[in-house]
Amino acid sequence: MQVRKALNLTVSISALAVGLVVFVLLSMLFQVERAMKAGEVADSIVSSVFERSTLRDDYLRTKSERARIQLLAKQQEIGRLLHIAEEKFWRAEDKAIIVEMVQDHQSTQRLFTAVMTSGAAPLSPAQAAIHSEMEERLHTQIIMRAYETVIHARDLQQAGRRQLISSLTMAGGSIAGTIVLLAVAVFVNGWTVGRTVTRRVAALRDGAATIGAGNLEHRISMSGDDEFVEVSNAFDSMAANLQRSYRELEKEIAQRRRAEEALHKNQEELELRVAERTEELEKIRQELERQNERLHGAFHDLKVESENRLQALEELRQKDRMLIQQGRLAAMGEMLSHIAHQWRQPLNVVGLITQQLAMDFDCGGLDRHALQLHVEKTMRILGHLSQTINDFTTFAGPDRARTVFQVDEVISRTISLTEQSFRSQRIKMEVTVEGSPVIDGYPNEYVQVLLNILMNARDVLLERNVGNPLVTVRAVTEKGKAVVSIRDNAGGIPEEIVEKIFDPYFTTKESGKGTGIGLFMSKTIIEKNMGGRLTARNVGDGAEFIIEV
Protein backbone atom coordinates (compact mmCIF):
# COMPACT_ATOMS: atom_id res chain seq x y z
CA MET A 1 0.00 0.00 0.00
CA GLN A 2 3.04 2.29 0.33
CA VAL A 3 3.36 2.89 -3.42
CA ARG A 4 -0.32 3.78 -3.71
CA LYS A 5 -0.02 6.15 -0.76
CA ALA A 6 3.05 7.76 -2.31
CA LEU A 7 1.29 8.21 -5.63
CA ASN A 8 -1.80 9.64 -3.88
CA LEU A 9 0.50 11.97 -1.98
CA THR A 10 2.06 13.13 -5.26
CA VAL A 11 -1.37 13.78 -6.76
CA SER A 12 -2.50 15.64 -3.60
CA ILE A 13 0.62 17.80 -3.59
CA SER A 14 0.16 18.58 -7.30
CA ALA A 15 -3.53 19.46 -6.81
CA LEU A 16 -2.70 21.63 -3.79
CA ALA A 17 0.05 23.40 -5.71
CA VAL A 18 -2.23 23.99 -8.71
CA GLY A 19 -4.91 25.38 -6.39
CA LEU A 20 -2.33 27.60 -4.72
CA VAL A 21 -1.07 28.83 -8.11
CA VAL A 22 -4.66 29.60 -9.20
CA PHE A 23 -5.35 31.40 -5.90
CA VAL A 24 -2.15 33.44 -6.14
CA LEU A 25 -2.80 34.18 -9.83
CA LEU A 26 -6.35 35.37 -9.13
CA SER A 27 -5.15 37.49 -6.20
CA MET A 28 -2.42 39.04 -8.28
CA LEU A 29 -4.82 39.62 -11.20
CA PHE A 30 -7.11 41.44 -8.77
CA GLN A 31 -4.22 43.58 -7.60
CA VAL A 32 -3.09 44.23 -11.20
CA GLU A 33 -6.62 45.15 -12.27
CA ARG A 34 -6.95 47.48 -9.28
CA ALA A 35 -3.62 49.09 -10.10
CA MET A 36 -4.60 49.50 -13.77
CA LYS A 37 -7.89 51.14 -12.80
CA ALA A 38 -6.00 53.43 -10.41
CA GLY A 39 -3.66 54.40 -13.25
CA GLU A 40 -6.65 55.08 -15.55
CA VAL A 41 -8.20 57.33 -12.87
CA ALA A 42 -4.89 59.20 -12.49
CA ASP A 43 -4.65 59.67 -16.29
CA SER A 44 -8.23 60.96 -16.37
CA ILE A 45 -7.46 63.45 -13.57
CA VAL A 46 -4.40 64.78 -15.45
CA SER A 47 -6.39 65.11 -18.67
CA SER A 48 -9.31 66.81 -16.89
CA VAL A 49 -6.98 69.28 -15.11
CA PHE A 50 -5.47 70.36 -18.45
CA GLU A 51 -8.94 70.64 -19.99
CA ARG A 52 -10.03 72.75 -17.01
CA SER A 53 -7.09 75.09 -17.62
CA THR A 54 -8.20 75.52 -21.23
CA LEU A 55 -11.82 76.17 -20.18
CA ARG A 56 -10.62 78.59 -17.46
CA ASP A 57 -8.66 80.65 -20.02
CA ASP A 58 -11.69 80.61 -22.32
CA TYR A 59 -13.96 81.90 -19.54
CA LEU A 60 -11.53 84.58 -18.36
CA ARG A 61 -11.21 85.75 -21.95
CA THR A 62 -14.88 85.70 -23.05
CA LYS A 63 -16.87 85.79 -19.76
CA SER A 64 -19.59 83.88 -21.69
CA GLU A 65 -22.31 81.79 -20.06
CA ARG A 66 -21.35 78.77 -22.16
CA ALA A 67 -17.74 78.91 -20.95
CA ARG A 68 -18.93 79.26 -17.34
CA ILE A 69 -21.19 76.20 -17.59
CA GLN A 70 -18.44 74.09 -19.20
CA LEU A 71 -15.94 75.20 -16.55
CA LEU A 72 -18.32 74.28 -13.70
CA ALA A 73 -19.03 70.90 -15.33
CA LYS A 74 -15.31 70.17 -15.62
CA GLN A 75 -14.87 71.15 -11.93
CA GLN A 76 -17.57 68.64 -10.97
CA GLU A 77 -15.93 65.95 -13.10
CA ILE A 78 -12.55 66.51 -11.37
CA GLY A 79 -14.28 66.25 -7.97
CA ARG A 80 -15.90 62.97 -9.01
CA LEU A 81 -12.55 61.57 -10.23
CA LEU A 82 -10.87 62.54 -6.94
CA HIS A 83 -13.61 60.72 -5.05
CA ILE A 84 -12.98 57.60 -7.20
CA ALA A 85 -9.22 57.94 -6.63
CA GLU A 86 -9.78 57.80 -2.85
CA GLU A 87 -11.21 54.29 -3.38
CA LYS A 88 -8.60 53.07 -5.92
CA PHE A 89 -5.38 54.12 -4.09
CA TRP A 90 -4.68 52.45 -0.75
CA ARG A 91 -1.13 53.51 0.11
CA ALA A 92 -0.82 56.20 2.81
CA GLU A 93 1.42 58.48 0.71
CA ASP A 94 -0.99 58.21 -2.25
CA LYS A 95 -3.98 59.04 -0.05
CA ALA A 96 -2.03 62.07 1.31
CA ILE A 97 -1.57 63.30 -2.28
CA ILE A 98 -5.28 62.82 -2.96
CA VAL A 99 -6.17 64.78 0.22
CA GLU A 100 -3.96 67.68 -0.95
CA MET A 101 -5.55 67.52 -4.40
CA VAL A 102 -9.04 67.63 -2.86
CA GLN A 103 -8.03 70.68 -0.80
CA ASP A 104 -6.55 72.36 -3.90
CA HIS A 105 -9.72 71.50 -5.82
CA GLN A 106 -11.97 73.00 -3.14
CA SER A 107 -9.76 76.11 -2.91
CA THR A 108 -9.81 76.48 -6.69
CA GLN A 109 -13.59 76.09 -6.64
CA ARG A 110 -13.89 78.93 -4.14
CA LEU A 111 -11.59 81.12 -6.23
CA PHE A 112 -13.63 80.41 -9.38
CA THR A 113 -16.79 81.29 -7.49
CA ALA A 114 -15.23 84.56 -6.32
CA VAL A 115 -14.17 85.44 -9.88
CA MET A 116 -17.57 84.56 -11.34
CA THR A 117 -19.56 86.57 -8.73
CA SER A 118 -17.29 89.61 -8.75
CA GLY A 119 -18.28 92.55 -10.86
CA ALA A 120 -21.95 91.70 -10.88
CA ALA A 121 -22.99 95.17 -9.62
CA PRO A 122 -22.07 98.55 -11.27
CA LEU A 123 -18.86 100.07 -9.83
CA SER A 124 -17.43 103.56 -9.64
CA PRO A 125 -14.09 104.23 -11.33
CA ALA A 126 -12.24 103.88 -8.02
CA GLN A 127 -14.07 100.71 -7.13
CA ALA A 128 -13.49 99.35 -10.63
CA ALA A 129 -9.72 99.83 -10.23
CA ILE A 130 -9.74 98.05 -6.87
CA HIS A 131 -11.94 95.33 -8.34
CA SER A 132 -9.57 94.88 -11.31
CA GLU A 133 -6.59 94.52 -8.95
CA MET A 134 -8.46 91.95 -6.81
CA GLU A 135 -9.49 90.06 -9.91
CA GLU A 136 -5.86 89.94 -11.10
CA ARG A 137 -4.83 88.51 -7.72
CA LEU A 138 -7.60 85.88 -7.90
CA HIS A 139 -6.44 84.93 -11.39
CA THR A 140 -2.88 84.54 -10.11
CA GLN A 141 -4.03 82.33 -7.20
CA ILE A 142 -6.14 80.22 -9.59
CA ILE A 143 -3.10 79.65 -11.83
CA MET A 144 -0.97 78.69 -8.81
CA ARG A 145 -3.61 76.28 -7.58
CA ALA A 146 -3.89 74.77 -11.05
CA TYR A 147 -0.11 74.33 -11.20
CA GLU A 148 -0.12 72.60 -7.79
CA THR A 149 -3.01 70.35 -8.93
CA VAL A 150 -1.08 69.35 -12.07
CA ILE A 151 2.00 68.48 -9.97
CA HIS A 152 -0.09 66.38 -7.56
CA ALA A 153 -1.87 64.69 -10.51
CA ARG A 154 1.50 63.81 -12.05
CA ASP A 155 2.60 62.36 -8.69
CA LEU A 156 -0.64 60.35 -8.52
CA GLN A 157 -0.04 59.15 -12.07
CA GLN A 158 3.45 57.94 -11.15
CA ALA A 159 2.01 56.26 -8.01
CA GLY A 160 -0.48 54.34 -10.19
CA ARG A 161 2.36 53.13 -12.43
CA ARG A 162 4.45 52.11 -9.42
CA GLN A 163 1.44 50.31 -7.98
CA LEU A 164 0.95 48.39 -11.27
CA ILE A 165 4.65 47.44 -11.51
CA SER A 166 4.64 46.31 -7.87
CA SER A 167 1.57 44.13 -8.43
CA LEU A 168 3.09 42.54 -11.56
CA THR A 169 6.39 41.87 -9.78
CA MET A 170 4.63 40.32 -6.78
CA ALA A 171 2.50 38.15 -9.09
CA GLY A 172 5.53 36.84 -10.97
CA GLY A 173 7.46 36.12 -7.78
CA SER A 174 4.55 34.34 -6.13
CA ILE A 175 3.89 32.12 -9.15
CA ALA A 176 7.60 31.29 -9.58
CA GLY A 177 7.95 30.38 -5.89
CA THR A 178 4.89 28.16 -5.99
CA ILE A 179 6.13 26.37 -9.12
CA VAL A 180 9.59 25.76 -7.55
CA LEU A 181 7.93 24.40 -4.40
CA LEU A 182 5.77 22.07 -6.49
CA ALA A 183 8.81 20.84 -8.49
CA VAL A 184 10.80 20.07 -5.32
CA ALA A 185 7.89 18.19 -3.71
CA VAL A 186 7.22 16.14 -6.84
CA PHE A 187 10.94 15.34 -7.27
CA VAL A 188 11.41 14.13 -3.69
CA ASN A 189 8.25 12.04 -3.72
CA GLY A 190 9.03 10.66 -7.19
CA TRP A 191 12.58 9.69 -6.18
CA THR A 192 11.25 7.81 -3.13
CA VAL A 193 8.59 5.99 -5.19
CA GLY A 194 11.12 5.17 -7.93
CA ARG A 195 13.60 3.65 -5.51
CA THR A 196 10.95 1.41 -3.92
CA VAL A 197 9.54 0.36 -7.29
CA THR A 198 12.98 -0.49 -8.71
CA ARG A 199 13.89 -2.91 -5.88
CA ARG A 200 10.48 -4.61 -5.93
CA VAL A 201 10.40 -4.94 -9.71
CA ALA A 202 13.87 -6.59 -9.70
CA ALA A 203 12.71 -9.20 -7.16
CA LEU A 204 9.56 -9.91 -9.17
CA ARG A 205 11.58 -10.20 -12.41
CA ASP A 206 14.03 -12.77 -10.93
CA GLY A 207 11.23 -14.84 -9.37
CA ALA A 208 9.21 -14.82 -12.60
CA ALA A 209 12.28 -15.93 -14.58
CA THR A 210 12.88 -18.88 -12.19
CA ILE A 211 9.24 -20.00 -12.37
CA GLY A 212 9.22 -19.53 -16.15
CA ALA A 213 12.27 -21.83 -16.43
CA GLY A 214 10.15 -24.69 -15.04
CA ASN A 215 10.93 -24.60 -11.33
CA LEU A 216 7.35 -24.62 -10.10
CA GLU A 217 8.46 -25.22 -6.50
CA HIS A 218 10.22 -21.79 -6.29
CA ARG A 219 8.51 -19.05 -4.22
CA ILE A 220 9.33 -15.31 -4.26
CA SER A 221 8.14 -14.70 -0.64
CA MET A 222 8.37 -10.88 -0.62
CA SER A 223 7.60 -9.12 2.71
CA GLY A 224 5.89 -5.80 3.30
CA ASP A 225 2.44 -4.23 2.88
CA ASP A 226 2.59 -2.57 -0.54
CA GLU A 227 1.17 -3.55 -3.92
CA PHE A 228 4.31 -5.44 -4.95
CA VAL A 229 3.80 -7.87 -2.04
CA GLU A 230 0.32 -8.54 -3.42
CA VAL A 231 1.85 -9.22 -6.86
CA SER A 232 4.50 -11.49 -5.23
CA ASN A 233 1.81 -13.45 -3.41
CA ALA A 234 -0.09 -13.75 -6.68
CA PHE A 235 3.03 -15.16 -8.38
CA ASP A 236 3.53 -17.68 -5.54
CA SER A 237 -0.12 -18.70 -5.73
CA MET A 238 0.16 -19.02 -9.49
CA ALA A 239 3.24 -21.30 -9.15
CA ALA A 240 1.40 -23.53 -6.66
CA ASN A 241 -1.62 -23.71 -8.95
CA LEU A 242 0.56 -24.51 -11.94
CA GLN A 243 2.28 -27.32 -9.98
CA ARG A 244 -1.06 -28.77 -8.97
CA SER A 245 -2.40 -28.38 -12.52
CA TYR A 246 0.67 -30.17 -13.92
CA ARG A 247 0.03 -33.23 -11.76
CA GLU A 248 -3.63 -33.23 -12.68
CA LEU A 249 -2.69 -32.90 -16.35
CA GLU A 250 -0.58 -36.09 -16.19
CA LYS A 251 -3.57 -37.97 -14.83
CA GLU A 252 -5.80 -36.49 -17.51
CA ILE A 253 -3.42 -37.59 -20.30
CA ALA A 254 -3.70 -41.20 -19.16
CA GLN A 255 -7.44 -40.92 -19.10
CA ARG A 256 -7.49 -39.42 -22.61
CA ARG A 257 -5.53 -42.34 -24.01
CA ARG A 258 -8.16 -44.70 -22.74
CA ALA A 259 -10.82 -42.38 -24.11
CA GLU A 260 -9.21 -42.42 -27.59
CA GLU A 261 -9.52 -46.17 -27.77
CA ALA A 262 -13.18 -45.94 -26.88
CA LEU A 263 -13.58 -43.12 -29.41
CA HIS A 264 -12.15 -45.24 -32.22
CA LYS A 265 -14.74 -47.87 -31.53
CA ASN A 266 -17.47 -45.25 -31.45
CA GLN A 267 -16.24 -43.82 -34.74
CA GLU A 268 -16.92 -47.05 -36.56
CA GLU A 269 -20.44 -47.08 -35.17
CA LEU A 270 -20.84 -43.41 -36.18
CA GLU A 271 -19.88 -44.11 -39.80
CA LEU A 272 -22.63 -46.67 -40.01
CA ARG A 273 -25.12 -44.21 -38.61
CA VAL A 274 -23.93 -41.51 -41.03
CA ALA A 275 -24.66 -43.76 -44.00
CA GLU A 276 -28.15 -44.34 -42.72
CA ARG A 277 -28.63 -40.60 -42.09
CA THR A 278 -27.37 -39.71 -45.57
CA GLU A 279 -30.07 -41.84 -47.12
CA GLU A 280 -32.68 -40.08 -45.00
CA LEU A 281 -31.31 -36.64 -46.00
CA GLU A 282 -31.56 -37.53 -49.69
CA LYS A 283 -35.23 -38.23 -49.24
CA ILE A 284 -35.61 -34.91 -47.37
CA ARG A 285 -33.79 -33.07 -50.22
CA GLN A 286 -36.20 -34.42 -52.79
CA GLU A 287 -39.11 -33.26 -50.64
CA LEU A 288 -37.52 -29.79 -50.30
CA GLU A 289 -37.21 -29.53 -54.08
CA ARG A 290 -40.92 -30.17 -54.45
CA GLN A 291 -41.66 -27.53 -51.77
CA ASN A 292 -39.32 -25.10 -53.56
CA GLU A 293 -41.30 -25.47 -56.77
CA ARG A 294 -44.48 -24.65 -54.85
CA LEU A 295 -42.79 -21.64 -53.23
CA HIS A 296 -41.60 -20.40 -56.63
CA GLY A 297 -45.18 -20.42 -57.87
CA ALA A 298 -46.31 -18.56 -54.75
CA PHE A 299 -43.49 -16.02 -55.27
CA HIS A 300 -44.61 -15.41 -58.85
CA ASP A 301 -48.15 -14.77 -57.65
CA LEU A 302 -46.83 -12.42 -54.95
CA LYS A 303 -44.70 -10.54 -57.51
CA VAL A 304 -47.72 -9.99 -59.75
CA GLU A 305 -49.74 -8.77 -56.79
CA SER A 306 -46.91 -6.41 -55.71
CA GLU A 307 -46.69 -4.94 -59.22
CA ASN A 308 -50.42 -4.32 -59.13
CA ARG A 309 -50.12 -2.61 -55.77
CA LEU A 310 -47.19 -0.47 -56.93
CA GLN A 311 -49.19 0.60 -59.96
CA ALA A 312 -52.09 1.54 -57.70
CA LEU A 313 -49.69 3.46 -55.42
CA GLU A 314 -48.26 5.36 -58.41
CA GLU A 315 -51.79 6.29 -59.47
CA LEU A 316 -52.44 7.62 -55.96
CA ARG A 317 -49.22 9.65 -56.11
CA GLN A 318 -50.24 11.03 -59.49
CA LYS A 319 -53.56 12.08 -58.01
CA ASP A 320 -51.72 13.73 -55.11
CA ARG A 321 -49.52 15.65 -57.54
CA MET A 322 -52.61 16.75 -59.43
CA LEU A 323 -54.20 17.93 -56.18
CA ILE A 324 -51.01 19.83 -55.27
CA GLN A 325 -50.92 21.42 -58.73
CA GLN A 326 -54.59 22.38 -58.44
CA GLY A 327 -53.87 23.92 -55.04
CA ARG A 328 -50.96 25.83 -56.54
CA LEU A 329 -53.12 27.08 -59.41
CA ALA A 330 -55.78 28.15 -56.91
CA ALA A 331 -53.14 30.06 -54.96
CA MET A 332 -51.94 31.67 -58.19
CA GLY A 333 -55.48 32.80 -58.94
CA GLU A 334 -55.77 34.28 -55.46
CA MET A 335 -52.44 36.08 -55.89
CA LEU A 336 -53.61 37.60 -59.18
CA SER A 337 -56.62 38.99 -57.35
CA HIS A 338 -54.24 40.75 -54.96
CA ILE A 339 -52.28 42.54 -57.70
CA ALA A 340 -54.79 45.40 -57.48
CA HIS A 341 -53.71 45.97 -53.89
CA GLN A 342 -50.04 45.79 -54.85
CA TRP A 343 -50.59 48.31 -57.68
CA ARG A 344 -52.59 50.85 -55.70
CA GLN A 345 -49.66 52.44 -53.88
CA PRO A 346 -47.31 52.75 -56.92
CA LEU A 347 -50.21 54.20 -58.94
CA ASN A 348 -50.70 56.80 -56.21
CA VAL A 349 -47.05 57.74 -56.67
CA VAL A 350 -47.58 58.04 -60.45
CA GLY A 351 -50.58 60.28 -59.75
CA LEU A 352 -48.53 62.48 -57.45
CA ILE A 353 -45.78 62.77 -60.10
CA THR A 354 -48.42 63.80 -62.65
CA GLN A 355 -49.79 66.43 -60.26
CA GLN A 356 -46.24 67.67 -59.63
CA LEU A 357 -45.76 68.09 -63.40
CA ALA A 358 -48.87 70.26 -63.58
CA MET A 359 -47.79 72.34 -60.57
CA ASP A 360 -44.27 72.83 -61.98
CA PHE A 361 -45.77 73.85 -65.33
CA ASP A 362 -48.13 76.35 -63.73
CA CYS A 363 -45.29 77.83 -61.66
CA GLY A 364 -42.99 78.05 -64.66
CA GLY A 365 -40.46 75.65 -63.12
CA LEU A 366 -40.90 72.83 -65.68
CA ASP A 367 -37.83 72.65 -67.92
CA ARG A 368 -36.49 69.86 -70.08
CA HIS A 369 -34.32 68.41 -67.30
CA ALA A 370 -37.15 68.33 -64.72
CA LEU A 371 -39.51 66.80 -67.26
CA GLN A 372 -36.95 64.10 -68.09
CA LEU A 373 -36.52 63.27 -64.38
CA HIS A 374 -40.29 62.89 -63.88
CA VAL A 375 -40.58 60.76 -67.03
CA GLU A 376 -37.73 58.47 -65.95
CA LYS A 377 -39.22 58.03 -62.46
CA THR A 378 -42.65 57.27 -63.94
CA MET A 379 -41.14 54.70 -66.31
CA ARG A 380 -39.32 53.05 -63.41
CA ILE A 381 -42.60 52.78 -61.50
CA LEU A 382 -44.39 51.39 -64.57
CA GLY A 383 -41.55 48.89 -65.02
CA HIS A 384 -41.94 47.94 -61.38
CA LEU A 385 -45.69 47.39 -61.92
CA SER A 386 -44.87 45.07 -64.81
CA GLN A 387 -42.27 43.28 -62.67
CA THR A 388 -44.90 42.90 -59.94
CA ILE A 389 -47.07 40.91 -62.37
CA ASN A 390 -44.11 38.65 -63.20
CA ASP A 391 -43.21 38.20 -59.51
CA PHE A 392 -46.73 37.23 -58.46
CA THR A 393 -47.26 35.06 -61.57
CA THR A 394 -44.19 33.01 -60.64
CA PHE A 395 -45.02 33.01 -56.90
CA ALA A 396 -44.53 29.52 -55.37
CA GLY A 397 -43.15 28.24 -58.69
CA PRO A 398 -40.16 25.84 -58.62
CA ASP A 399 -38.21 27.54 -61.41
CA ARG A 400 -37.48 30.95 -59.85
CA ALA A 401 -33.73 31.64 -59.69
CA ARG A 402 -32.19 32.93 -56.48
CA THR A 403 -29.48 35.57 -56.74
CA VAL A 404 -27.09 37.34 -54.38
CA PHE A 405 -27.85 41.08 -54.21
CA GLN A 406 -26.71 44.12 -52.23
CA VAL A 407 -29.29 45.30 -49.70
CA ASP A 408 -28.27 48.97 -50.02
CA GLU A 409 -28.94 48.86 -53.78
CA VAL A 410 -32.43 47.41 -53.23
CA ILE A 411 -33.17 50.03 -50.56
CA SER A 412 -32.00 52.82 -52.89
CA ARG A 413 -34.24 51.50 -55.67
CA THR A 414 -37.20 51.32 -53.30
CA ILE A 415 -36.59 54.82 -51.90
CA SER A 416 -36.40 56.22 -55.43
CA LEU A 417 -39.90 54.84 -56.08
CA THR A 418 -41.39 56.30 -52.89
CA GLU A 419 -39.48 59.49 -52.16
CA GLN A 420 -41.76 61.67 -54.31
CA SER A 421 -44.83 60.39 -52.49
CA PHE A 422 -43.23 60.94 -49.09
CA ARG A 423 -41.90 64.35 -50.03
CA SER A 424 -45.30 65.53 -51.22
CA GLN A 425 -46.79 64.56 -47.84
CA ARG A 426 -43.91 66.27 -45.95
CA ILE A 427 -42.76 62.95 -44.47
CA LYS A 428 -39.05 62.84 -43.69
CA MET A 429 -37.07 59.68 -44.46
CA GLU A 430 -33.71 58.75 -42.89
CA VAL A 431 -31.71 55.84 -44.37
CA THR A 432 -28.66 54.32 -42.66
CA VAL A 433 -26.62 51.42 -44.10
CA GLU A 434 -23.79 49.96 -41.99
CA GLY A 435 -21.31 47.79 -43.86
CA SER A 436 -22.32 45.93 -47.03
CA PRO A 437 -25.12 43.48 -46.12
CA VAL A 438 -26.00 40.98 -48.86
CA ILE A 439 -28.90 38.52 -49.33
CA ASP A 440 -29.24 35.33 -51.35
CA GLY A 441 -32.84 35.55 -52.53
CA TYR A 442 -35.21 37.41 -54.84
CA PRO A 443 -34.49 41.17 -55.11
CA ASN A 444 -37.78 42.12 -56.80
CA GLU A 445 -39.84 40.38 -54.10
CA TYR A 446 -37.68 42.06 -51.45
CA VAL A 447 -38.45 45.44 -53.03
CA GLN A 448 -42.17 44.61 -52.85
CA VAL A 449 -41.86 43.86 -49.12
CA LEU A 450 -40.09 47.18 -48.48
CA LEU A 451 -42.73 49.03 -50.51
CA ASN A 452 -45.58 47.45 -48.54
CA ILE A 453 -44.06 48.40 -45.16
CA LEU A 454 -43.08 51.94 -46.26
CA MET A 455 -46.50 52.68 -47.77
CA ASN A 456 -48.25 51.36 -44.66
CA ALA A 457 -46.07 53.68 -42.56
CA ARG A 458 -46.97 56.60 -44.81
CA ASP A 459 -50.70 55.85 -44.60
CA VAL A 460 -50.73 55.60 -40.80
CA LEU A 461 -48.71 58.83 -40.44
CA LEU A 462 -51.23 60.65 -42.62
CA GLU A 463 -54.22 58.99 -40.95
CA ARG A 464 -53.09 60.02 -37.45
CA ASN A 465 -51.94 63.49 -38.60
CA VAL A 466 -48.55 63.14 -36.84
CA GLY A 467 -46.51 66.31 -36.38
CA ASN A 468 -42.98 66.08 -37.86
CA PRO A 469 -43.61 62.63 -39.39
CA LEU A 470 -40.48 60.51 -39.72
CA VAL A 471 -39.65 57.09 -41.22
CA THR A 472 -36.23 55.59 -40.42
CA VAL A 473 -34.68 52.75 -42.48
CA ARG A 474 -31.57 51.01 -41.10
CA ALA A 475 -29.63 48.10 -42.64
CA VAL A 476 -26.87 46.16 -40.83
CA THR A 477 -25.26 42.71 -40.75
CA GLU A 478 -25.84 40.79 -37.50
CA LYS A 479 -24.64 37.20 -36.89
CA GLY A 480 -24.27 36.51 -40.61
CA LYS A 481 -27.76 37.85 -41.48
CA ALA A 482 -28.82 41.02 -43.30
CA VAL A 483 -31.18 42.89 -40.95
CA VAL A 484 -33.33 45.81 -42.20
CA SER A 485 -35.50 47.74 -39.72
CA ILE A 486 -38.20 50.26 -40.72
CA ARG A 487 -39.48 52.51 -37.92
CA ASP A 488 -42.06 55.32 -37.81
CA ASN A 489 -43.25 57.78 -35.14
CA ALA A 490 -47.00 57.27 -35.64
CA GLY A 491 -47.70 56.05 -32.11
CA GLY A 492 -47.29 52.29 -32.62
CA ILE A 493 -49.65 49.35 -33.20
CA PRO A 494 -52.48 48.75 -30.68
CA GLU A 495 -51.51 45.85 -28.42
CA GLU A 496 -54.78 44.01 -29.06
CA ILE A 497 -54.05 43.66 -32.82
CA VAL A 498 -50.23 43.47 -32.92
CA GLU A 499 -50.42 39.65 -33.24
CA LYS A 500 -52.98 39.84 -36.10
CA ILE A 501 -51.40 42.29 -38.54
CA PHE A 502 -49.82 39.50 -40.61
CA ASP A 503 -53.08 37.55 -40.95
CA PRO A 504 -54.61 37.49 -44.44
CA TYR A 505 -57.42 40.02 -45.08
CA PHE A 506 -56.81 41.74 -41.71
CA THR A 507 -56.73 45.51 -42.10
CA THR A 508 -57.30 48.57 -39.92
CA LYS A 509 -57.98 50.86 -42.89
CA GLU A 510 -61.38 52.04 -44.01
CA SER A 511 -63.37 49.99 -46.49
CA GLY A 512 -61.92 50.33 -49.97
CA LYS A 513 -58.53 51.56 -48.76
CA GLY A 514 -56.97 48.24 -47.82
CA THR A 515 -57.45 44.52 -48.40
CA GLY A 516 -55.26 43.15 -45.59
CA ILE A 517 -53.03 41.21 -48.02
CA GLY A 518 -49.90 43.39 -48.10
CA LEU A 519 -48.29 42.33 -44.80
CA PHE A 520 -49.50 38.72 -45.23
CA MET A 521 -47.79 38.52 -48.64
CA SER A 522 -44.67 40.26 -47.25
CA LYS A 523 -44.34 37.68 -44.45
CA THR A 524 -44.89 34.83 -46.95
CA ILE A 525 -42.17 36.19 -49.28
CA ILE A 526 -39.60 36.68 -46.51
CA GLU A 527 -40.21 33.51 -44.45
CA LYS A 528 -41.34 30.89 -47.03
CA ASN A 529 -39.62 32.02 -50.24
CA MET A 530 -36.40 33.43 -48.76
CA GLY A 531 -36.09 31.51 -45.47
CA GLY A 532 -35.93 34.68 -43.36
CA ARG A 533 -38.02 36.28 -40.63
CA LEU A 534 -40.39 39.28 -40.59
CA THR A 535 -41.57 40.65 -37.21
CA ALA A 536 -43.16 43.81 -35.81
CA ARG A 537 -43.03 45.48 -32.43
CA ASN A 538 -43.73 48.81 -30.72
CA VAL A 539 -40.69 50.91 -29.81
CA GLY A 540 -40.62 54.42 -28.42
CA ASP A 541 -43.22 56.56 -30.16
CA GLY A 542 -43.98 54.25 -33.07
CA ALA A 543 -43.81 50.80 -34.65
CA GLU A 544 -40.78 48.94 -36.01
CA PHE A 545 -40.76 46.18 -38.66
CA ILE A 546 -37.63 43.99 -38.73
CA ILE A 547 -36.62 41.90 -41.78
CA GLU A 548 -33.93 39.25 -41.16
CA VAL A 549 -32.59 37.14 -44.05
Describe the secondary-structure layout.
Elements: H1 2-62, H2 65-88, H3 92-117, H4 125-212, H5 227-337, H6 339-362, H7 368-393, E1 403-406, H8 407-424, E2 428-433, E3 438-441, H9 443-463, E4 470-478, E5 481-488, H10 518-529, E6 533-539, E7 542-548
Parallel strand pairs: 2-4
Antiparallel strand pairs: 1-3, 4-5, 5-7, 6-7
Can you characterise this structure?
The chain is an alpha+beta fold. The chain folds into two domains: 2-188, de novo design (two linked rop proteins); 338-548, Heat Shock Protein 90 (2-Layer Sandwich). It has ten helices and seven strands. It has helices spanning 2-62, 65-88, 92-117, 125-212, 227-337, 339-362, 368-393, 407-424, 443-463, 518-529; strands spanning 403-406, 428-433, 438-441, 470-478, 481-488, 533-539, 542-548. The strands form two sheets. It has a five-stranded mixed sheet. It has a two-stranded antiparallel ribbon with strand order 1-3. A hairpin with a 2-residue loop joins strand 6 and strand 7 (542-548). Helix 6 packs across helix 8 and helix 9 (443-463) runs antiparallel to helix 10 (518-529). Residues 323-335 and 394-399 have low confidence and may be disordered.
Number of helices: 10
Q: Approximately how much helix is present in the residues?
A: over 70%
- Overall 3D geometry? flat
Counting DSSP E segments of at least 2 residues, the number of strands comes to 7
* Mean pLDDT across residues: 76
Uncertain segments are 323-335, 394-399
What is the gyration radius calculated from CA atoms?
48 Å
